[in-house]
Structure formats: structure tokens, C-alpha cells
Design a protein that fits this description.
237 residues; alpha/beta
Length: 237
């Protein structure tokens, strides 16, 4: 029998070898963000013709990564971002972006928008249904309002993750959101809306697993997947 222990020792003691986790090896965050960006732009391009007169609003832009990509992708349009964290606003304003600080009250803004979107932020609002109505009023005729992924009252994965991470201080309003209530409220403000489910956010960084999940139509199941909210303003308004 050939003794390979020396070779094994040599490999394991090599300081140049990197022993990364599975998530890091798969570039989980990059793949997830790419998926979400592609999803967002496909929905926009399928519903709105973006021109140099178009205006786009991102709700809760966080570190500004997605807002910057949207501003670059739709470079002839006007892109505005709002946030509750002053440090985030100051950072992007210093970089030349139109970003504004909002407080806990429904913000006042003079513009009308072709596109308004947010990711996992509606459940941070204490009056989510009034907020939806207000955002709808800011749309131009034919404009769209969307939350491609959103937590809600019976979202098991969200509940588990928030319990593990101890985030309930910032997530308790998710229990005010339900698919049934969203359908009821959206039907009052528009004839063109969709409230469905979207695949598990944590699977977007694992392409093969995500493909299998969607092939089996598991992404359409309640409880396990995020909500997907889409509202289009009637053109005759």
C-alpha cells in the first residue's frame, strides 16, 4: 500500500489553500442580488416604457447597491431613493444620487412616478395598507407599484429566521400582512394587480437547487415562499 500521508499533510498545511464555506464558494450574495435585479428589470420592461421623462422611486434603498444599478440601467430616467437612515442617505447624496430622508410619517413628495418598488420593506410599515394606497396615488397613469419579495403573517421561513436572529423588534409588522387582505385592499384601488408567491429568497444563490424547486412548482406554495405584490395604475386615471 502506498503511503500518501505526507502528500495529505502537505496539502492541508498549505497556507495558500482556502477552505471557504459552501455559501461563499457559490457566491450566494452576488447570485441572489443578480436574480433580484433581473427580476425587477424584467417586470419593469414588460409593463412600462422607460424614457428620459420617466421617474423611478426605490423605497428603503439600504446601502444603495440596487439603486445604483437601476440608475445605471435606466440611465436616461430620473431615479430617486428614500431611506429612514441618515447615514445611508448622506452616503449616496455625496455620490451624486437623488436620495431623501423620511421619518415615520407618510412622506411628502411632489413627483409622480412610472415605477415604485421596494424589497422586503412593506412589513416594516405600521400602516401597510394605507401606505399602499398612498404610493398608488404617486403613480402616473400606467405606472407600476411592486414589492417582488415580501414577508407576511404566515411566512414560516421568515418567522424561523427572525426567531433565530432575534429581529422581532423590527419585524413585528409583518403579522399585519396577509395575501387575503392584500387582495381585498388592492381590489379597492386598481383593476390590475397580482398578489402571489415568489420562491424562497435563500435559494436564489443556489442555481441548481432553485431550478429544481421551481420545476416542481414549490415556489407557488404558501407559507414557505415570500409574497410578490404588483399593482398597475389604470391608464384612464
Amino acid at each position: 500500500m502506498i503511503d500518501k500521508s505526507k502528500d495529505n499533510l502537505k496539502i492541508q498545511s498549505n497556507e495558500m489553500v482556502k477552505y471557504n464555506s459552501l455559501i461563499i464558494n457559490l457566491k450566494f450574495r452576488e447570485l441572489k442580488e443578480l436574480y433580484l435585479f433581473d427580476l425587477l428589470t424584467k417586470i419593469i420592461d414588460s409593463n412600462v416604457k422607460i424614457t428620459n421623462k420617466s421617474t423611478i422611486l426605490e423605497l428603503g434603498f439600504n446601502d444603495g447597491t440596487r439603486l445604483k444599478k437601476i440608475a445605471s440601467y435606466y440611465k436616461d430616467s430620473k431615479v430617486i431613493g428614500i431611506e429612514v437612515r441618515k447615514s445611508c442617505v448622506d452616503k449616496l447624496v455625496n455620490e451624486g444620487y437623488d436620495c431623501r430622508l423620511v421619518n415615520e410619517k407618510i412622506f411628502e413628495i411632489n413627483e409622480k412616478f412610472d415605477v415604485i418598488y421596494g424589497y422586503l420593506m412593506l412589513h416594516h410599515i405600521s400602516i401597510p395598507y394605507d401606505y399602499l394606497k398612498y404610493l398608488y396615488s404617486l403613480l402616473k397613469p400606467g405606472g407600476i407599484l411592486m414589492f417582488p419579495i415580501e414577508s407576511y403573517s404566515t411566512h414560516i421561513i421568515g418567522i424561523i429566521l427572525n426567531t433565530i436572529n432575534g429581529n422581532w423588534k423590527y419585524e413585528t409588522n409583518m403579522f399585519k400582512l396577509s395575501r387575503r387582505k392584500l387582495i381585498k385592499e388592492c381590489s379597492k384601488i386598481s383593476n390590475n394587480f397580482y398578489i402571489g408567491y415568489n420562491g424562497l429568497l435563500l435559494l436564489y444563490g443556489f442555481p441548481q437547487l432553485n431550478k429544481i424547486y421551481r420545476t416542481l412548482n414549490l415556489h407557488k406554495l404558501p407559507f414557505f415562499n415570500e409574497l410578490s405584490i404588483f399593482i398597475k395604475k389604470d391608464t384612464n386615471i
